[in-house]
Amino acid sequence: MNEDQAMTPHSAVQEVVFDEETIRTRVRELGREISREYSEADRLVMIGVLKGSFLFMADLARALDVTFEVDFLMASSYGDATVSSGEVTFLYEPRTDLEGRAVLLVEDIVDSGTTLSALIPRLEERGASCVEVVTLLHKRLTNGVFEPRWVGFDAPKSFLVGYGLDHAEAFRHLPYIASL
Ligand code: PRP
Questions:
Q1: For residue 77, is it left (φ>0), alpha (ψ between -120 and 50) or beta?
Q2: How far is the CA of 77 from the centre of ligand 1 (A)?
Q3: What contacts 147, CB < 8 A, 6 or more positions away?
Q4: Which residue in the list 42, 111, 154, 166 is annotated as catalytic?
Q5: In the prediction, which pLDDT does 107 show?
Q6: In angstroms, what is the span from residue 36 Cα to ligand 1's centroid?
Q7: Is residue 144 pLDDT above 80, yes or no?
Q8: Are residues 53 and 105 in contact, defined by beta-carbon separation less than 8 angstroms?
């Protein structure tokens, strides 16, 4: 076996920034906080923004004690561009009828806020009575333009992978968040 074959995702990360236990504890807290905010009358729909939110969404859903439906959306990403064109389009749009319903958007990370600033009006146009955001990580680069209602952790500026976050589509499965 050569050196490349010996390199695994776990061994490739530089430093664990949020370990499994820290994430688990915070997700349970978020679950309790969010559950207090909604009732049956809200007809809550939890919408995960693919792909990065998939692990957080699964854990948060199990931490909620309120009735809700689950759906997903996928938005166009920047690709290799370093600066966003500001145009965000749906690659997959929720199939659920959102008319008169409370929407909780679930994100893994908010960076510039461009994605959510574009998605929220689109969901409101579809008749959602209110759209709130929970993000596990927040880079605080949004300059007050857009603030998620619930934030798991303030994120360091380093490039993060794991618990949904990728580098070239790898590392999403790591149960912790690490810098690369
Ligand atoms: C990431 C993340 C957010 C967005 C945040 O998604 O999941 O959706 O970027 O960036 P912004 O605040 O600057 O708009 P990405 O496009 O990397 O796709 P992925 O979820 O499939 O990894």
A1: beta
A2: 6
A3: none
A4: 111
A5: 97
A6: 28
A7: no
A8: no
Using a 10 angstrom Cβ sphere, with 0-12 exposed, 13-18 middle and 19 or more buried, the burial of residue 126 is: middle
Catalytic annotation present for 154: no
Q: Is the CB of 114 under 6 A from ligand 1?
A: yes
Biggest alpha carbon–alpha carbon distance for the chain = 59
Please write the tens of the pLDDT for every residue from 35-63. 999 999 999 999 999 999 999 999 999 99
The CA-atom distances, in angstroms, between 78 and each of 84, 86, 158 are: 6, 9, 19
The label of the residue with tokens 């009735």 reads 67
CA dihedral 138, 167, 173, 16 (to 10 degrees): -60
With a 6 Å cutoff on the Cβ, whether 109 touches ligand 1 is yes
Band of pLDDT at residue 164, cut at 50, 70 and 90: very high
Taking the CA of residue 107 as reference, the ligand 1 atom at the shortest distance is 7
| Ligand 1 atom 21 nearest Cα | 51
Atom 20, ligand 1: which residue's CA is nearest?
A: 52
Cβ of residue 112 lying under 6 Å from some atom of ligand 1: yes
Cβ-contact 160, 171 below 8 angstroms = no
Q: How far is the CA of 40 from the centre of ligand 1 (A)?
A: 31
